[in-house]
Amino acid sequence: MELKTLLLCLTALPLTTAETVLGVYIFHRHGDRSSKSLPPVNLTSLGADQVFQSGNFYRERYVMSNASAPIHGLSTDIAVPSQLNVLSPSDAVLQSSSLAFLQGVYPPAGSLSVSTLANSSEVEAPLGGYQYVPVTSSSTASTSTNAESSEWLQGGSGCGNAVVSSNNYFQSAEYLSTLSSTKPFYSNLSPIIGGLFGSSAATFKNAYTIFDYINVGRIHNSSIPSDDLLTDDTVFQLRTLADNHEWNLAYNESDSIRAVAGATLAAQILQQLNSTLTGKGATPVSVQFGAYASFMSFFGLAQLHKVSENFTGVVDYASSMVFELVTNATTISKTSYPAASDVSVRFLMANGTAAQNPLTAYPLFGQSDVLLPWTTFASEMNKFAIGDTTAWCQACGNTTGVCASSTASSSSGDDGSSTTAASTSGNGISLPVAGVIGALVTLVVILGLEGLVYALAGLKLVKKSTLASLGAAGAASSATADAKA
Predict the structure, then answer these.
(1) pTM metric for this prediction
(2) What is the mean pLDDT of residues 14-30?
(3) At what angle do helices 292-301 and 260-278 cross, to 10 degrees?
(4) Closest CA to 464 of 280, 270, 225
(5) Per-domain boundaries in the chain
(6) In the CATH scheme, what architecture does the domain 20-107+126-148+255-385+411-444 have?
(7) Average pLDDT of 297-321?
(8) CA–CA separation, 378 vs 410, rounded Å?
(9) Strands 20-29 and 320-327
């Protein structure tokens, strides 16, 4: 009797308005790859499967007709190119990852791809209706088309002040202390890495390249020389030291320019989500593939490392972070699209392929709620986002190349106001059109900063014939850094 009464009471309660996803921005790392020590570096079968499964996960979440969180107005079976904005550097591993991912999101259309001709004959598209979703490349004169095969990732022009900032880490007391205290640890691994890492190179200064080499070998090699040295504790310490090394190159709380990769990424995220609002959902899905340095830089700027220390580590292969643009508005159409005041943003993260690792919501910017009003999200992102050429050049201290004209125009017409990534207008925010750092420039910066540090360090790679072949032979200077991918 009591249960019946309770159920009757519950039915009398008002129903919660269903949430609608208006759009998403997904930033994704590539899948498992071969070792960077022996170019060309390629996406492995395992890596392709990881990103494909991730794509399938997001299909089930956002795309399918019975998706758990369907995106409003998004085509469910046949990809509509205008609804998708997909970016990737012109790099074999990242481009291949993006293509595999998209096949998970929009798999071959099968019978839906069959066309009936005027003579009544039927033709099915190749490969069972394989769907060709365009991927915008960021290839420029300063962007390597085979970045994963290079000594350093996307080795081109970059942010001068950010390079200096990252190099300052190698002069810090923290780095020098860790370098000294870990020498015995790395020396003990010489039977595994000694063939390519001499005594001067087998140190914390090459923490990530050493870890990467051993990690790739443990995944793909059936046997490893002296593998009895690789105890669980040793592998854990290798990963922890690599995480510490890379975090300090990607972010510094007292020197924000070090996280320029995250700042430019933030502007791209803000720009595209704003475009979804102002365009009333015309392009609701954006996917960008990039390097782990961008994840780490953004994590620091968004204060996620204060939520969990896990955000200070290198994200696993096929990891992804998602920004969902959502509303509780009951009526959504081109003529009655939600206003900015009715829209919120949720941040979610999956460390590793989302198909096997939970996609979890986390609070941004030191806030307590995981769901932020759009205006709050935009305001917080604007505190560190770098969204136009003039702002980037000023922050980086660059005066040549693309910055030559920006520096001149800035000095001749500076009104004393700062340039942010966005300003509020209409249903959302409108980014400055002139000088916006688009995919061609920002991805070079995002993926090139640590590459420059690596190059300035004087590291060079040598070939391998066994697992002991990763590498970097040594550094002539005190500033060394691994490329972030």
Answers:
(1) 0.81
(2) 83
(3) 80
(4) 225
(5) 20-107+126-148+255-385+411-444
(6) 3-Layer(aba) Sandwich (3.40)
(7) 97
(8) 25
(9) antiparallel
